[in-house]
Write a sequence for this structure.
């Protein structure tokens, strides 16, 4: 009697949640049910019910492994995997009523899809969240293979190479008939398959480890890009993501910094409704953010109505001072129109720009990552922004690297005039 072909789904089915997770689980369950129907039609009611019971138990363990209470306990998951291997082994080698071992000799059972099913179970754990389960599954399969050897050799009907001698098998034809008997156990083939099981286990365990590491790395990069995208332009996000990917998290270069604030916002906010204040801040941030991103810059921080941005982070050959002036010009042009739709008399702008050497770096991990910037341009831009009230201008440009700033005059279509405010030497655009 040829044993029924049994399909047992892999042990990596997700807990039935959304449709994407539930569909593979339902497909494997449907295939298991199909195997039971095949066994019922091909081998009768007893075989069909037997395969159905084994498949249902296997699927149940498959589902149970993905439950949160089990996933937190690796030992329970490992025990269930071993039990799944035992279920498949019992269907093929255990005596009735648990398996088909009493109907078909053990050596003949080795030629069934038994080992292929176990390899499918092993492969299903390659993408599991815990790569060690792949190694454990392989070791369980190897242990089952050793148990099968003991079961076969314990059967008095089993014939091995050691039993074939010249005294009992005097002709070559007699030897051929002996080694082709259903109860002949090829020990050499068993040993070769044991080596195959061990080799495949090591290969797939390493593959599972690599897949797990790649998944973690991809998740970290995705979280990093999500965090950076809220503050930086796409080109800056690409640069910072590549820098973190290669381990570069600190660098020094010449940068331009903008410090922007709403002049007179606090007293104005006291006279407005909360909804108007929120709408005004939202429009202000959207205007500044769009201008910064359009000019290739990055938002350093949002602090109330204050916004700090930096230019020059990208690897391309760009002029940070020119980009900063372009950004400031766009903010000055677009803010009155955006604010007038909310309040009749919108607050003015106070913008300070400075250019010079600075040190930048990424701190934090995942969605908590942020850009840290240290250097004279940061403090100088904030100071210039505060001095715009005294200078009665919405924009002051620092005196550092004057040549670079003068080269950017055409970016705002204006002339720069030197001004001195206390100890500060700055440049003031003519038409703002």
């Amino acid at each position: 009697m040829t044993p029924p072909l049994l399909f047992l789904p892999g042990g990596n089915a997700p807990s039935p949640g959304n449709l994407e997770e539930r569909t593979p689980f339902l497909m494997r369950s449907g295939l298991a049910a199909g195997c039971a129907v095949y066994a019922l039609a091909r081998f009768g009611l007893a075989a069909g019910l037997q395969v159905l019971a084994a498949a249902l138990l296997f699927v149940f363990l498959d589902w149970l492994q993905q439950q949160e209470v089990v996933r937190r306990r690796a030992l329970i998951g490992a025990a269930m995997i071993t039990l799944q291997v035992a279920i498949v082994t019992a269907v093929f080698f255990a005596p009735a009523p648990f398996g088909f071992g009493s109907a078909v000799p053990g050596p003949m059972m080795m030629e069934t899809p038994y080992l292929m099913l176990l390899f499918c179970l092993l492969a299903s754990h390659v993408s599991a969240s815990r790569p060690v389960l792949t190694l454990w599954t392989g070791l369980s399969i190897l242990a089952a293979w050793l148990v099968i050897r003991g079961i076969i050799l314990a059967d008095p009907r089993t014939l091995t190479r050691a039993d074939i001698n010249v005294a009992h098998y005097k002709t070559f034809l007699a030897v051929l008939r002996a080694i082709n008997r259903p109860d002949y156990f090829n020990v050499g083939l068993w040993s070769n398959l044991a080596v195959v099981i061990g080799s495949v286990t090591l290969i797939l365990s390493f593959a599972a480890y690599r897949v797990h590491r790649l998944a973690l790395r991809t998740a970290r990069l995705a979280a990093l890009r999500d965090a950076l995208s809220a503050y930086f332009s796409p080109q800056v996000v690409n640069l910072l993501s590549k820098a973190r990917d290669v381990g570069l998290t600190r660098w020094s270069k010449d940068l331009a910094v903008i410090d922007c604030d709403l002049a007179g916002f606090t007293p104005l906010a006291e006279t407005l409704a909360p909804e108007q204040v929120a709408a005004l801040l939202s429009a202000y941030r959207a205007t500044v953010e769009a201008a910064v991103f359009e000019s290739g810059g990055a938002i350093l921080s949002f602090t109330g109505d204050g916004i700090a941005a930096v230019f020059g982070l990208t690897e391309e050959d760009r002029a940070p001072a020119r980009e900063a002036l372009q950004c400031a010009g766009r903010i000055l042009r677009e803010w009155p129109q955006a604010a007038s739709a909310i309040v009749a008399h919108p607050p003015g702008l106070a913008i300070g720009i400075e250019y010079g050497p600075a040190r930048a770096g990424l701190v934090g991990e995942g969605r908590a990552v942020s850009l840290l910037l240290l250097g004279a341009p940061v403090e100088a831009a904030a100071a210039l922004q505060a001095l715009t009230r005294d200078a009665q201008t919405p924009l002051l440009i620092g005196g550092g690297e004057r040549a670079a700033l003068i080269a950017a005059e055409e970016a705002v279509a204006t002339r720069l005039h030197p001004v001195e405010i206390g100890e500060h030497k700055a440049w003031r655009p003519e038409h703002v």
User: Anything to note?
Assistant: Confidence is low (pLDDT under 50) at residues 1-21.
